[in-house]
Amino acid sequence: MKKHRIVTFGELLLRFSKPDHLRLTQGDMFTSKYGGSEANVAVSLAMLGDDVQYVTRLPETPVGRAGAMMLEQLGVDCRHVVYGGRRIGTYYFEPSAGMRAAKVIYDRDGSAYSELSPGMIPWREILKDASVLHVSGITAAISQNAADATFEALDIADELGLTVSFDINYRKNLWKYGADPRETLSRMLSRCDMMFGDAIEFEWLCQRPQPPFTATSSDFKMQMDEYREWFDDLHRQFPRCRNWLMGMRNMVSSTHHTLTALLWTDGTLLEAPIIDIPDVVDPMGVGDAFMAGLLHASAKFPDDKQLQLNYSLAASALKNTVPGDFNLSNDEEIMAVVNHARDIHTLYKITI
Length: 352
Known about the structure:
The chain is of the alpha/beta class.
């Protein structure tokens, strides 16, 4: 019997921001943090005590080595990180403030990961005793080589009978090498068993308008019939995927958000409570915390789909209170939020 070991695959990034909500054009100092969607998932799972391995390609430089060392210090197995190439991918993040929207600028061209190609990673060795492979749409957006390496991993995961977890992570500005993002992401989606996306990504995938999520209180009513049509249509197109998780956020202000989620699972559509987050610290990595929460809860509570959904939402909500890309919340903290929601069945505030 295979261990419950999860493998995540993607690009580790170095994130740069200006301190104290300065704009990128202001000041003379940057702060830096490591992140990246699939690394964020790996760290979240490690914080929850899961056996998780992260696979990527990093440059053989102090900056590349430091990234892997930092992940290992947080409990992530990085033994199969491949080293080579010239540079680490980066992005620049300007947080929102007042009515000013957040800004993300990618600088990933020519990164070590973008030059990854099939055959560089010993997937059969890595996946032989794993149970889950997690990838995202970003892995196929960076370059044709990275896309080919991702499909190589998916082929071997299928051959070995793994569950495939997929975050659609559609980033329009990354698709620059000529591939059709809808065709490529649809091919990835056809190979997955569980999928996460936010409402905007589901809108892009479904090609129909999103029912508005404008919750400021627990009185908000979700348009469940419309969402059920979305999920039913998607499942007909992609019948292998039996668990579809969608996160929804309403930005009341730059630091005040409401958050909820829906889970379509084997024909049943479940609704989570609405969480009110009055003091958002850092919204980056919230979707990755959703996916990690579902992966962990699916193994921990295999017979309780509603609890899996509520756990995912609580993990994601707590990420908003943690600076940086990584969700450093533990199981006890997440369950405290889950149980609070269960007790009052209404909109509630994060008070940790």
